[in-house]
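ESCALATION

Customer reports they have been waiting on this structure for their group meeting. Please prioritize. Original submission:
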Amino acid sequence: MATTLSDIKRRIGTTTQIRKVTSTLQKVASAKLAKDLKRISNASRYFEGICRALAIAHHALPASAPAHPLMTKQEGDTIALIVFGSDRRLCGAFNALLMNGVRDFVKAHPDKRVLFLFRGKVPYRRALRMQMPDIENAETPDGIADKMLADFEAGRICEVHMLYWDFVTGLEQTVVAEQILPTPFTAKEATQHPSAANYDTDLIEPSPDALINALLPEYVRCSIHNSFYNSGATENAQRRTSMSRATENASEMLVGLKKTYSRLRQENITTEMLEIVAGLSR
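Update from on-call: job pushed to the front of the queue and completed.
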């Protein structure tokens, strides 16, 4: 009986420590999520400004102007997929659902050779265990953008796609596959932008062509950064939820362990008292 009590007491101590850890991780994830939301808001406003400037510049171009190389489909059968995962675990099904999206993407492009660029150690290691071909690990969004722009302009890849978590709310996030090269911001969409027809194109300096040449690479970089920020916010939101549930489960387990400990301790005391009474009555 004493051994059983000591085991339960040890489990109570272990569970208490686990609850402290999960509670701390939940608070850290909440703090990081608040910063991520501010970063997403700022990046979204900047991205909207880029789109507005591109629309104005395209509206100022003559109808016979050729399409920009970043808007032109390249020849070839090699495409790139940028996957934004996490460097750490304990975030629910964040990386598992992302890898499901990778498999769905490959099935949707059976006639293409897919080059995988992983941002996140967890999905990258899973890809290594799955022995996926043509995989590479990336560190920073800026490095990813520079590499993709260089490879696309050189004709080494014909398309660039991203797979990431789109943060909608703290309770709603979805896995999204999105093409960024050739840029989906076509000339037709640009001229239909609300800001395009309400701006004096004579005020554009130095020229619409120069503005487009400067802004289109920035458009691609902003798209990559926004995907990175959304995935980071989703990771922290799902980690907060997972750690919250783990803390609740640990608390429930502690309640049950403490009840069991009290019951067994009382039974032990009662047994000892009966043994004492039995010894005195002899």
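Sent to customer with the following note: The first helix runs from residue 2 to 60.
Escalation resolved.
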